Every structure is written in structure tokens, then in C-alpha cells.
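Regression test attached.
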Amino acid sequence: MTRRLIASPAPWVGLLAAIALLLPLAISSPFAIDVFIRVLLFAFIGVAWNLMGGYAKQLSLGHAAYFGLGAYTSTILLIRFGISPWIGIVAGGMVAMLASLPIGALCFRLRGPYFAIATIATAQVLMLLFLKFRDFAWGAEGTTLPNLGDAPLMMQFDSKLAYYYLALALLAMGLAITWCIERSWMGYYLVAVGEDEDAAEAIGVDTLRIKRQIYLISAFLTALAGTFYVQYIYFIDPNVAFSFNISVEAALVSIVGGIGTLWGPVIGTVLLEATSALLQSWLGSGHGGVQLTVYSLILMAVILWRPAGLIGILTDAGARFAPASLAHAKEAPLDG
Amino acid sequence: MLATLAQAVINGLLIGGIYALVSIGVTLIFGVVKIVNFAQGEFVMIGMYISFFLANRFGIDPLASLLISMPVLFVIGVLLQHFLIRRVLALGDMPQIFLTFALSLLLMNVGLLMFTANYRTVQTAYSEAAIHICVAVGVSLALAGAAGSLLMPFYPAYPMVGQVFVLMAFVAVVLGTLGNVTGALIASLMMGVAESLGVQFVGADSGLIVVFVMLLATLALRPSGLFGGWSR
């Protein structure tokens, strides 16, 4: 069903891109821009998670490990060695890839819920280690990043717009990578692993290898988001960088939107972040529990009534409004 | 030195016993419906609050309130099975994991909203439905309730407290070979002692690291857990 949404609508993607590019010029309130940046960033993290959790159905709840490694790598390079975060962001991705190898080797021995649990544990171990390493990485107090003013070469900007477009670029890259993988041999192998790992193994898919490879890509992308985030908020500590909420939100946006689909994480993030922004403007901040209460209710509702995610509603609506070809109309019931 | 060691081991066995109640609960649900209950820790939290309020309002000893927290959580377990778990039994890993995970998030944050603002008790309707799976889920939650009541004399109750215990329970379940009740019990006690020794001899924040290192080492060396063959 998603393939259909993507195959035909080059114009739709163009329109979406135009809206995304022009949006911050039309709506310039700092609060709105901040919400947009969060949407783009978490959609990007969701896209990275979705490669692994959606297509291959390896339900990780520990992606904060890579987010944190990316954040810490670039920050350590910046503060200790004065190296630009533009280099740091790539270095962070590399570190995350390296870390994903042993973590994957351990966790891939487990399946389903036990894989999820093991990934939680790895992210927690990293957080505890960074809490403990006071000399190396500032320990529990964390550190603020030096504010260099408007320094594009150091990934610091006066204007929030720059961060917006940077986040947009990251998301576009994530979507492009997913798009390429989706239609390559790798995409089919991943779906095979996700459907039934034993069956995939039986027909000759090297499941361990394919899982390892997609984990590398997913970890790399997640780490980029980590660097971006600390450059945006100018602060890092283990609780921010390895926050369990990052792991949760990465999975949540994908599931609500529709796992294993190109646009699912984007749709999920828009819905959840819009809800959260509305709640914030109604109730004001300081109701810490409200947002996650609402998130969890949305998640339960989606799982009970639309386990394939909300993207199904959009594609159904699309099929109703645009019965473009006979083939399309014929296939629509199968998709439902 | 020897006295400190003995004290650390005893503390470890004490907390390990609590982990065991939680992890046996997880194992029990897994045994009948093949679903891992990510919300098990939140039921410990509920058990703790029940004991807290009974102690606060009526001066009931937390250990005596076991007699109340266990049946209450048994009923919650039966309702949980009837209204939620039953609906995802036939579905795959994703809905099964994230339904109980969402429940965990929900209970945690409702707890946060209710108990940080002003302390209030929850009214729970009693019912006596008893079908086999319901009984298993009920007993499992009753164990969680027991854990909560037993913890109350020496552990603070707060809405996120469940996270500590569910994580430990999961580690115990993986260590002790999933689906194996005895394994979960022994692994829980081992973890309690390891954590306590870590705190005593390495440093206050090292308890968890010791336990997680145990988990990762076990996964590396004996992926099927300490007690038996590989089961999916």
C-alpha cells in the first residue's frame, strides 16, 4: 500500500518538499519553529529506527545508545580538541557504527521482547558508564557547549532557521536512504527477516549479516541526530544524551505512523508532536505526566484498532479520492 | 570486613527476593500467553502505593497489607487479561510488546499526575472471574503486589519506581532462561547479591553496572541463559 503512495506521487513529494522549505518563512513564531525542528528531528530518528525496527522488525528500545554516542563524540571533539562538529557529526556516526557491532553481536542472539530488553540494557549501561567517567566526559553534571555566536563552520547559528533547514536536510537524507533500501535487494531481505526469520534463513538469507548491516546504518543515522540535538540545545549530560525517552519516541512515532513504511515515522511524529504542542499551549508546561499519558493512550488505540499504523488511513483516503487507474482501484481492497 | 560482607550478602538476598517476585511474575505470564509484560514493574508500583496509603491512613503494617495488595492486584490482573492481553494474543511481536509497553507508560504517567499533585488512593472494583489464563495473569500481578508491599518498609514509592524493578526482572528472566521459574528465582537472588556487593565494594552507583555486565557476559557466553537449553 505504501509502495503505491510512493510510486506515483512524485508531484506529492515535490509539494511536500516545497511546503517544508517555505513553512518557516510563513510562520515565524519561535515557538512554532521550535516545534517544527522537534518534528523534523524526531521524524529523522524515527526513520533511522524504522529501518531496523520497521522493515526487519528488530524492535530496539535502546537507540538512545547511538544518539548519546553521537552527541558525546562530537561534543568531546569540540571541547577537548576544538574540532568542528561538522567533522564530529561524522565521527559520531562512525563511533556509533563501531559500537553497534558488539551490541548487535550480543543482542541478535535474542528475539522479540528479549531483544528489546537487551537493547534497553545496553543503552542503560552506556548511560551509567558516562555518569561514572567524570574526568573523561564531565560525569553527571554534564557541560554546556561553548557559545560561539554565529559560527556556521562550527555548526552554530544565530537564526533558528538554519537549524530548521539542517534538520530538514537530515530527514530528507534519511528518507532518501530508506527509499533506496526499500527498492534494493536489501529491502526485500529485510522484509523477509521481519516476516519470519527462520523461513528467511531457510531460503538462504544470511539473517545475521543483514541484521548487522541494517543496524550499522540505523546506528549511524541515529548518532547524527544526537550531534544535531546537542548543537541545538547547547548542553549535554548522560540523562539528556542517553534518555530512555529518545529510545521510546523513536519506536513510538514509527509504530503510530506505520512501521516498515517510508512515510510512517513522519506521519507519526507530526501527529504526536502536534498533540504535544497543543497540550503544552492548553495546559502550559509543568504537567510532565500529561504528554506521555496521552502518547501511551494513542499508542494503545493504534495497536488495538490499527496495528498497521495511521498511514493506512491516508492511503485508503488516497485511493478513494484518486481512483486514477483500474489497477489501482483493483488493488485497493487488498491493501486495506 | 567479614561482617560487612555478610551484611552485603543478606541485603542482596533481600532485594534479590523482591526481584524474584517480579521476575517469577513475568515468567508466569510468559509461560501461559507467551507475552512479556513490560508493565509488571508498574504493578509493583501500585502495590507500593496501596501499602503506603493503608499504612498512612489506617496505620496498617505494610507486611499485613499484603493481604489486601495481593487480591487487589489479582483482580487487576484478571481485568488486564480480559480487556487487553486477550486482544493481541494472535498478533505478532510488535503489538504484544508495545501494548504492555504502552500500559507501562500509561500507569507510570497517571501515577505521576495523581501522586505528585496530591496523594490519593484508587478505588478498585472487586470481581471474581476465574478462568485459567486469567488466574495465571492474576497470580502474576498478585506477586507484583506482594513485592510492592514487601518493599514499602525499606524503599520509597514514586511513580517511576517500577522501571527499576522491571528492568531487573527482565535481566533475571534472561539470565535464568526464559520460561524457567526456578531459573528466574536463582538468577534474581544472584543479581541481588551481585548488586549489593557492587554497591558495597565498588561504589554506590556501581550496583547496576555489575548486574548489566552479568547480563551481557551471559549473553556472550551462554545465550540460552544459565539454566538450560535454548527456547525461543
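Expected vs. actual: identical. Residues 2-221 of chain B form one domain.
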